[in-house]
Amino acid sequence: MELSYQLTQKQILSQQQIESLNILSMDMQELEDFLTEEQNENPVLNFIVRETPRTTSYSSDDNNDRLHSIPAPKIEIAADILLPQLNTNLYTQDETNIFELIADFTDSNGFLTVSPEEIFTFYKIPPSLFHKCLNVMQELDPPGVCSRTLEECLLRQLGNERDETLAVMIRHHLADIAEGKLHRIAKALKIDILNVHKYIQTIRALNPRPLNGLLGEKAGNIIPDIILIYENDSWSIELNDSWIGKLEICDWYAALAAGTTDAALREYLKTKIQRIRFLNESIERRRNTLMRIGACIAERQSDFLLHNGPIVAFSMTNVADKLGIHLSTVSRAIKGKYLQYPGGVLEIRAMLAQRVPHANAFGEASGPSREGAKKYLKDLISGENREKPYSDSQLAALLKKLGIELSRRAVTKYRKELDILGMHGRRST
C-alpha cells in the first residue's frame, strides 16, 4: 500500500459567486423585487426606494421630445439567441451554414430535437466537421444549450473541471434523486448521506431547460437599464438605478450586534450584516459591468445611435475581448435588458449584431450587420415592380450581386421580421 498526495487546481464557483452572477443577470424590475424580498427577510437591512425607475412607453401620436420605447423585439426561435453570439469572421461559410442548421434543430428549451447522426447523415455533412461546429454551439450561452439529453445538458454546465462523483450521479442517478432514493445513491457511490445532499443541491442549482423562458415576446412597459446621452460631441453613460441608493445597515441592529452578550444573537446579526455588504458589492459590480458595456456600445455603434448609419457588426465575443471578461459574463449582463438613446429604446442584444459576411472590392471579409442587411432587403422590395414582385429566392440572388450572402431561408426570416408580406401578398393586380 502506498499513500500519495496529488495537488490539483479547480475553479469551483461558490454559492456567493453564483448569486452575484444571478444579480448581474437581473433586469431593473427583477432587481427591485429581489431587494424588496431581501428586506422582508433581513430585519437589519434598510432598503428605501428613493424614486421610481424611469419607464418608457411608446405612442405613435406623441410628438414631444421625450424618449420613447419601441415594441419589445420578439425572440421566436433559438437561432435569435444563439447565432448573434458567433463571430462569423472566424468561420467558413460551410461552418456558418451548419451553425444555422443546428440552431434550427434546437427547441424552445434549448435541446437538439434529433440526434447529430441523423442531421449529418441526412444533409451529407462530414461527421468531423459537424461535431466541430456542434462543439462551438454547445459552448454558447446559456450553458448547456444544444445538448441532446438532460444528463449531457447538466454535465456541460459543470464544465471540464467537475467532480467525477457528481458527474456519475448525474449520468446514472437522476431518477433516484427524483424518487428520493438517497440511500441507494449513497450505497452505489460509497459516500455518506450528507455528501449526497450537497451534490443534489449543486444539481438543483443547474438549469434543466437552458432556453426556457427566453423565447417569446416581452410584455409591459420597458425599463431601460442603460441610458446613453449625447452632448458636446461625446457620449455619457448613466444607469437607471439611482432609485436603489446604497443598502444600509439599521443603526439600532448594528448597536445591538456590537453590545449583545448573547452569542447566538450576535452570530445571527453578524450574518445579516455580512449579507448586506455582499449585496452592496454585487450591485456595484453589476453597475460597473453595465457601464463598461454601455461605453463599448456607444463607441462602436455611435453612427447608428446618431442616425448616421446602420448597426455595425459587433458581437458579444467582441465586447468580452475588449473588456477582458468572460463571454458568459457579457451574456448574463445584457440578458433581457434595454438601452435608451436619443432615438428611442432598443434591447441591448440587438446592438450586438451578427455580421453578414461578404467580400468587398478588395476581396477582404466585410459586410453590414443583420440590421444593415435588412435595410438593403427593404430597399430592394421598395423599388420592385408591384406587378411582378420578387420572390425570396430572387431577393437572395439580388443581395448576392450586392455582395451580401444570404440564403433564401434567411431572406424569408428577415422579411418577416420587417413585417413585409411575401411575393403574392405584395402583388398589385
Please provide a written account of the structure.
- Helix 1 crosses helix 13, helix 5 (116-122) crosses helix 6 (127-138) and helix 15 (316-323) crosses helix 16 (327-334).
- The chain has helices at 15-25, 28-41, 79-82, 93-104, 116-122, 127-138, 150-158, 164-172, 174-178, 182-189, 193-204, 251-259, 263-300, 302-305, 316-323, 327-334, 348-351, 370-382, 392-401, 408-417, 423-426; strands spanning 45-46, 226-231, 234-239, 248-249, 338-341, 344-347, 358-359, 365-366.
- The chain folds into 3 domains: 15-72 and 217-351, no CATH class; 79-204, no CATH class; 358-426, Arc Repressor Mutant, subunit A, CATH 1.10.10.60.
- The chain has 21 helices and 8 strands.
- With 429 residues, the protein is α+β, with helices and mostly antiparallel strands.
- Residues 4-12, 55-73 and 355-367 have low confidence and may be disordered.
- The chain has a 4-stranded mixed β-sheet with strand order 3-2-5-6.
Compact overview of the structure:
The protein is 49% helix and 7% strand. It is α+β, with helices and mostly antiparallel strands and 429 residues long. Strands 3-2-5-6 form a four-stranded mixed sheet.
Structural class: alpha+beta
Shape: flat
The helix/strand series, from N terminus to C terminus, equals HHEHHHHHHHHHEEEHHHHHEEHEEHHHH
Q: What share of residues is helical?
A: 40-55%
Percentage beta strand: 5-15%
Task: Tell me about the largest β-sheet.
Answer: 4 strands, mixed
Count of the separate structural domains = 3
The total beta strand count reads: 8
**End-to-end span in angstroms?**
91 Å
- Overall pLDDT score: 78
- Helix count, DSSP H or I runs of 4 or more residues: 21
Taking pLDDT < 50 over at least 5 consecutive residues as the criterion, the unreliable ranges are 4-12, 55-73, 355-367
Alpha-carbon Rg, integer: 26 Å
The strand line-up of the biggest sheet is: 3-2-5-6
